[in-house]
UniProtKB/TrEMBL annotation:
Keywords for this protein: Carbohydrate metabolism, Glycoprotein, Golgi apparatus, Membrane, Signal-anchor, Transferase, Transmembrane, Transmembrane helix
Primary localization: Golgi
Gene name of the record: Chst12
EC number(s) stated in the UniProt entry for this protein: 2.8.2.-
Protein name: Carbohydrate sulfotransferase
Transmembrane residue ranges: 7-26
Pfam family for this entry, one: Sulfotransfer_2
PANTHER family reported for this sequence: CARBOHYDRATE SULFOTRANSFERASE, CARBOHYDRATE SULFOTRANSFERASE 12
């Protein structure tokens, strides 16, 4: 009698465990939306995995989940898919609901296909540079040597996941991230307009684009999957196509300053401008609103901003804001093996090539560039009044981003 009860109890416990795993799996892949058709033709590193291939040795839980996901892939690959919807052009002009977009505007001039860049070779070179310096023990920077498991959960909040197409995008503010987020919303169908998913990226209002609840990011996995979260992250990192876009670090700083301190931004005025004006410009009794401050001619200077970045007290109070935080701290390029590295300097060509590789170029096109994007040629003018010692310190602060992503050292700014 006792044996029979133990047997029944064992069956019940096993059944409950399997139900929980099925729930985790179902919540992870959704209802028939697990499309992994994003393979790249680039040579794979030893141990790299393509959809349908055998998994390399993983811990027990990882292995079980990997097999579970792998079996789903095989079933989905044999299931006829509906024809993909053709590109929806949408409106001819974006809705300018944000001050920054209203001021800067879009470049709607026709861009012809530019084949001057050999995109495949370009990607091989960019990835080779990144991997070489990540492996180079003589080149060091903070957090370089830690493993993926060592990265705190809150530092994974820039990795946006699209389970429908098997894509992971690490967004870098001031590097076309608004429009790439719009593309991710369209692909993942994570936002509806009157019950229908958005089809044209520029139809998505900017305030929805930057709402954190709109996107599934790695830092949210813990709430969904608990102790399975890191295992699922690793599986997705192996199976999914991972990309990011970067920019000359100094030009990115100029762009961040222009958009957050030259335009009336209430939040950035209160959080950053007021402390900067007090610390570095000796102002007291500052207005509480940005409009009053601008009316009184009280604005943060670029010199104030650079002092703020170099001030050791800044990081002690809180980590850099994402708009000027280094890319290596946002996207962890030495812990995550990115499949595609785009650059703002070649945005049009890179974006078109990436959408082709993802096999979604018939679904949407990447939105047009801003008209007056901050240019690299402006660096000399912006840094002309910044003391040489500060420029040299600033380079050391952002050196890893320059080196990892192949940007030349700005010698003209670092010498007398």
């Amino acid at each position: 009698m006792t044996k029979a009860r133990l047997l029944r109890l064992s069956v019940v416990l096993v059944s409950i465990f399997m139900i929980l795993l099925i729930i985790v799996y179902w919540d992870n892949v959704g209802t028939a939306h697990f499309y992994l058709h994003t393979s790249f033709s680039r040579p794979r590193a030893p141990g790299a995995i393509a959809a349908g291939e055998d998994w390399e040795a993983l811990p027990d839980v990882d292995e079980f989940l990997a097999k579970l996901l792998g079996s789903s892939l095989k079933r989905n690959s044999s299931t006829p898919r509906k024809p993909e919807q053709l590109l929806v052009q949408g409106s001819n002009k974006p809705v300018l609901s944000n001050l920054e977009e209203n001021v800067r505007g879009y470049d709607w001039s026709t861009h012809k296909d530019r084949n001057s860049l050999d995109q495949e070779k370009l990607q091989v070179e960019r990835q080779r540079t990144l991997r070489e310096f990540c492996a180079n023990s003589s080149f060091t920077f903070p957090t370089k040597e830690r493993s993926f498991d060592d990265i705190p959960n809150y530092e994974l909040n820039h990795l946006i996941v699209d389970d429908r197409h098997g894509v992971i995008y690490c967004y870098v503010p001031k590097v076309a991230c608004t429009n790439w987020k719009r593309v991710m919303i369209v692909l993942s169908e994570s936002l509806l307009d009157q019950g229908v998913p958005y089809r044209n990226p520029l139809d998505i209002p900017r305030e929805h684009v930057h709402n954190t609840s709109t996107h599934l990011t790695f830092n949210k996995f813990w709430r969904r999957y608990g102790k399975f979260s890191r295992h699922l992250m690793k599986i997705k990192l192996k199976k999914y196509t991972k990309f990011l876009f970067v920019r000359d670090p100094f030009v990115r700083l100029i762009s961040a300053f222009r958009s957050k301190f030259e335009l009336e931004n209430e939040d950035f005025y209160r959080r950053f401008a007021i402390p900067m004006l007090k610390l570095y410009s000796n102002h007291t009794n500052l207005p509480t609103s940005v409009s009053e401050a601008f009316g009184a001619g009280l604005r943060v200077s670029f010199s104030d901003f650079i002092q703020y970045l170099l001030d050791p007290r800044t990081e002690k109070m809180a980590p850099f804001n994402e708009h000027w935080r280094q890319v290596y701290r946002l996207c962890h390029p030495c812990q995550i093996d990115y499949d595609f590295i785009g650059k703002l300097e070649t945005l049009d060509e890179d974006a078109a090539y990436l959408l082709q590789l993802l096999k979604v170029d018939r679904l949407l096109r990447f939105p047009p560039s801003y008209r007056n994007r901050t240019a690299s040629s402006w660096e000399d003018n912006w840094f002309a009044k910044i003391p040489l010692a500060w420029r040299q310190q600033l380079y050391k602060l952002y050196e890893a981003d320059f080196v990892l992503f192949g940007y030349p050292k700005p010698e003209n700014l670092l010498k007398d």
